[in-house]
Write a structure and sequence with these properties.
By secondary structure, the chain is of the alpha/beta class. It has eight helices and seven strands. A seven-stranded mixed β-sheet has the order 4-3-2-1-5-6-7.
Length: about 170
């Protein structure tokens, strides 16, 4: 998978309560959650973001509570890739579990500005910005499968179906 999109940039230590405030955790509907995504740091974010955009964060992105609602709200906006200096471990894993790609690349985060367009090639660990190439850790094949299939549950269903057919 290759992601090319406009960048929305946020700072360090964006916690899950900033991504989706706790008062909206009464649903798991991704479209409903998307309406409130990032409304604490940017109240109009959900109105301005569009499918295919790429979210960029600083260090420790997604820290705080382990709610899966946070990456679901981002995915609900049509954002399929997040690049950060670093991720909180549970948020990182939850992102892949719902089928969203997350890539760590501190150098890119320092160089990129909101509104610029980047291209992320997770399998190769490459991010392109204005003719420059930034290196990230290539995405392991298992994580690529999770993203391509839409998350952990579709991956498990596929494995069970293959086992049953054998």
């Amino acid at each position: 998978m290759i992601y090319t999109g406009r960048v929305w940039k946020f700072g360090d230590d964006v916690d899950t309560d900033q991504i989706i405030p706790a008062r909206y955790l009464v649903t798991t509907d991704e479209k409903e959650l998307a309406r409130h995504c990032m409304e604490i740091p940017d109240p109009d974010f959900s109105k301005k973001a569009r499918g295919g955009d790429i979210l960029v964060g600083g260090k420790n992105f997604g820290c705080g509570s382990s709610r899966e609602h946070a990456p679901i709200s981002i995915k609900g906006l049509g954002i399929r890739c997040i690049v950060a200096k670093s991720f909180a471990r549970i948020f990182y894993r939850n992102s892949f579990n719902i089928g969203m790609c997350a890539v760590e690349c501190p150098e890119l985060v320092e160089a990129v500005q909101a509104g610029q367009t980047i291209t992320v090639v997770p399998e190769e660990g490459i991010i392109k910005l204005d003719g420059r190439v930034f290196r990230a850790q290539p995405l392991p094949p298992f994580m690529q499968q999770l993203v391509e299939l839409g998350g952990l549950m579709p991956w498990v269903k596929r494995k069970l179906a293959a086992r049953k057919a054998a």
